[in-house]
Design a protein that fits this description.
The protein is α/β, with parallel strands linked by helices. The chain has a single domain, classed as 3-Layer(aba) Sandwich (Rossmann fold), CATH 3.40.50.300. The protein has 12 helices and 4 strands. It is globular, with a radius of gyration of 19 Å.
Length: 266
Amino acid sequence: MLDLHARWRKTTGWSGSLPDFIVVGTQKGGTTELYDQLAQHPQIAPSFAKEVHFFDANYNKGINWYTSFFPPAAGAPSACITGEASPCYLFHPHVARRVYATLPNVKIILLLRNPADRAYSHYQHELRLGFETLSFEQALEAEPIRLKGEKARMLTDKHYYSEKYMHYSYQCRGIYIDQVQSWFEAFPQEQILLLRSEDFFSNTPSVMSQVHTFLGVNDAQIKRVNPHKSFPYPKVDPNLRRRLLETFEPYNQKLYDYLGRDFCWS
């Protein structure tokens, strides 16, 4: 579907701009809701697809393919900015460097969610889509086998896109320290806004005010007309969640030490 839209705009002589901001993750951390609110802001012209996946899955298609997903600079008001949200960008090992090489001045937004809760939400997402058939506990146990060699192949083959890593990285995606560090090493700190998903969920207007200030747009409070649809699912087994929290604890502590900030995910 992305290619169909891109080809149509190419045949009509479409010349889009480059994004001013990118929401890079994390998956199941609130990125869709945040982006949907930004898309309704009067000073923001959204991309034609929320998740363009250029810097991970479509990088070989070139910059003209990428710009076809954004409004033309000449056709938008001078006060408008544009951007996209592809939450797989956070964990992909090549994306931070690719983004900086292409968009050195772009602003980066990261939402990080308690990795135990993120893992279970990710599992429920894959279950609903039909990619997962195992129980959550079985899926966690199978993850190392499913993902064996996948990251190494991504590192050595810049054109390889791992479908397994996309669907079954329940725990790997929650080890944030290496992912966050790659972005902070690629970009100046002032170009990155790092948010705690729990704060966004509990006090959305306050967090959106931070985002608006970061992006340099007016702090317009958006009344959602069509809120993002959520799918209810059963609560995770408390004992399994506790084991997950224990698994993530040393990695979380490394993240806290690196950022000088405690996310209170114990």
